[in-house]
Design brief:
This protein is α/β, with parallel strands linked by helices. It is built from 12 helices and 15 strands.
Amino acid sequence: MKAIQIQRFGGPEVLELAEVERPAPGPGEVLIRVAGAGVNFADLNQRAGKYLFPQKLPLIPGFEASGTVVAAGKGAELLAVDRSVLEPGTRVFAGAARSAYAEYAIVPADVLYRVPDAMSLVEAAGIPVNFQVAWIVLHRKAQLQQGQTVLVHAAGGGVGSAVVQLAKLAGAYVIATASSAAKLAVAAELGADLCINYSSGFRDQIRESMRADRPVDLVVDSVGGGVLVESLELIRPWGRYVGFGQASGKAAELDAYASAIPNHLDIGFFGRGLIASSREPSDRALLREATSRAVALWSSRKIRCARLTRLALADAAEAHRRFSSRGLVGKLVLEAGAD
């Protein structure tokens, strides 16, 4: 089969199209014919050798995939939430696939989901990771309540646009920041109440735009670095900050104790990759809950994959260049087969 393989860690140029052996599903696993593979920031860390866990070379990157079932391994029916998804030809998607940048990929049976009839397979590849993160951050980590004010950074990206949608559905007032007018336009389309371009700083802009009776209750941040530091200055007493990434590539320079204690701030972080790789029943249940909620909302047309960009599997290096340039709006999916 054809796959994108990494022989050495580095920049986008190390992503090479190769012919490799098709994998076989082990116990509790399912082999799928990949239609689309979602591109995520974690993939860039895999490629660069900076992922949460050590990666062995050669490596086929990617965690997010959609496609059709080819075969199920021994015992898969005992783990699947819905045994009918194991039937060959069933349209499925997953946010915890293994080596998704390929024509075929392996998925644990307990995190494999049926694609709704009205959803294309390519769009399905852009749903699980973004909305799993958004749901868990808002409803598990932050315990978002109706009427609260949420500041969403990088709101024009894949996860950010998902956070905006779910926060609005929960009845929140949403402040969206992004680095370009195009990204802010997406956030506005999805319902953001206030849009701020943070390329020239966001803290003072938000202070000038916000009413005194509507302080920031929650900050959702994938940028980190200086954005984290400035964000803490905007949160009301007893408010919350949840970080789930450090796209800036810079560590935050702050005294966490001094920043949090005066206003009793709750500062927390979330790593989807840690939960996706965990075998703890509570973690697997959390992933299933978040995904089932997303599927239900999509089926009722309450959420969508914002600004889907499609590239061929062979163009994985270009996909990573676009992702790294920070100019990408919405979600990017690599097409590996027929939809």
